[in-house]
Design a protein that fits this description.
The protein is α+β, with helices and mostly antiparallel strands. It folds into three domains: 85 residues, Rossmann fold (3-Layer(aba) Sandwich), CATH 3.40.50.20; 68 residues, Dna Ligase, domain 1 (2-Layer Sandwich); 195 residues, D-amino Acid Aminotransferase, Chain A, domain 1, CATH 3.30.470. Helix content is 31%, strand content 24%. Strands 9, 10, 11, 12, 13, 14, 15, 16 and 17 form a nine-stranded antiparallel beta sheet that branches. Strands 3-2-1-4 form a four-stranded parallel beta sheet, with helices on both faces. A four-stranded antiparallel beta sheet has the order 5-8-6-7, sandwiched between helices. A hairpin with a 5-residue loop joins strand 13 and strand 14. It is globular. The termini are far apart. Magnesium ion binds next to loops.
Length: 397
């Protein structure tokens, strides 16, 4: 086992979005100094850092500054360059290990890795060139095509309802190819009529100890997370199966850190892994307000070799994301007073300076004695947002 990194020392995070900011604030609470590296000078976590590094990930002097000033590093999302992780690993511990980052940051590699180890993934077909874009019979329509790399929040995905859609997408990809766009391929999946989308957070220490949070069930709109509810509205047997499956993923990866496993629950009770993230997750934000130890504090603990924290739920919780201009709308007029004055309601604002459609700007967590009460409150806020919508930019679904 590697030596413990003591409070007072500095730790680093690659990526400076809201996840990096919440990591930095959890680290600071435990007495660590933080170094955040992000190419965007406006990234919110840079303002939380003791030492902000605002530079491209390819910047060699930024690499020196970052690696020289910290004892260990992690990342806030999987689209940071794998090569930076490998370079860092020559000098300091990087958790989860860059080899895991490489496997998970490509959907083809991720699904193959898990599938070959008998972990049930959504059935898929790997594509390496636009000419291969046909929908095999065992996938069928409706299908979903996803870029193998760099997709998030439903970006880089196309739904195909029939052969004409496949033809159009083939033309689009061929056109992009003539413009010299680099390619890592795509996956084609069946568009599944799942009963519920679940997610499970697993924390694993360097000694192999794992802790598994309660299961969340999630509502997405247009490929982007809208609502997470904990505990999930599923049978306890199903929840236990989902937790066991999630644990088996992290053990198979031999991961150290926080992982989120997204799972589809089918009407016949089968579970399929949708995707695995080697980091805290939007659907785990409830842990900030509804658990004794948040997913971000667990990330700090696993990184520094501290004892893992408990994963107990202190209260049912339902989280609603505030996207695009919704944060402004929800806090306009009397809105802020109303939200801040409602018992059991926690508002978090990420501090992003630019509003873009569907960008995650903040979230609200509703805590209540009964899950249904928190759920109703979240639905009421969602309808308020739908009714006060200024433009016509409705999401995909
Ligand atoms: P991202 O990296 O953008 O989160 P995901 O693969 O998780 O990509 O897809 C985003 C969302 O799109 C999922 O949470 C789910 O709601 C929907 N989705 C993804 N794959 C499928 C599928 N095969 N069938 C049905 N819905 C899907
Ligand atoms: Mg996802």
């Amino acid at each position: 086992m590697t030596a413990r990194i003591e409070p007072g020392q500095a730790i680093g995070v690659l990526g400076g979005g809201q996840l990096g900011a919440m990591f930095a604030s959890a680290a600071r609470r435990l007495g660590y100094r933080t170094v955040v590296w992000d190419p965007d000078p406006d990234a919110p976590a840079l303002r939380q850092a003791d030492l902000p590094v605002a530079a491209a990930f390819s910047d060699a002097s930024a690499f020196e500054r970052f690696s020289e000033s910290i004892k260990a590093a992690t990342y806030e999302w999987e689209n940071v360059p794998f090569s930076v992780g490998v370079e860092l690993e020559h000098r300091i511990p990087v958790r989860p290990a860059p080899g895991i980052l490489r496997t998970l940051q490509n959907r083809i590699d991720q699904k193959r890795f898990l599938g070959e180890r008998n972990i049930p993934v959504v059935p898929f077909h790997a594509l390496h060139s636009p000419d291969e874009l046909i929908i095999p019979d065992d996938i069928g329509y409706p299908a979903l095509c996803k870029t193998a790399t760099s997709g998030y929040d439903g970006k880089g995905q196309w739904r195909l309802n029939g052969p004409a859609d496949a033809e159009r997408l083939r033309d689009l990809f061929r056109h992009q190819d003539t413009q010299g766009r680099p390619r890592d391929g795509w996956v084609i999946e069946r568009f599944l009529a799942f009963e519920k989308e679940l997610s499970v957070l697993v924390v694993r220490g360097a000694d192999g100890e794992t802790r598994t949070y309660p299961v969340a069930d999630n509502v997405h709109e247009g490929g982007i997370l809208r609502i997470s509810r904990v505990p999930a509205a599923i049978e306890s047997r199903t929840a236990e199966q989902a937790q066991a499956l999630a644990r088996s993923v992290v053990e198979t990866l031999n991961g150290v850190g926080v992982f989120c496993i997204e799972v589809f629950l089918m009407p016949d009770g089968r579970l399929f892994i949708n995707e695995v993230a080697p980091r805290p997750h939007n659907s785990g934000h409830y842990t900030l307000d509804a658990c004794t130890v948040s997913q971000f504090e667990q990330q700090v603990r696993a990184l520094c070799g501290l004892p893992l924290g408990e994963v107990r739920l202190l209260s049912p919780a339902v989280m609603l994301n505030l996207l695009g201009d919704e944060l402004t709308r929800v806090t306009a007029g009397e809105g802020l007073e109303r939200l801040l004055g409602t018992p059991g309601t926690k508002l978090r604002i990420y501090g992003k300076t630019t509003i873009r459609p569907r960008r995650k700007m903040g979230h609200v967590t509703f805590l209540a004695e009964k899950t249904e009460t928190a759920w109703e409150a979240a639905l009421a806020l969602r309808s308020f947002l739908a009714n006060s919508r200024s433009g016509i930019s409705r999401p995909r679904e």
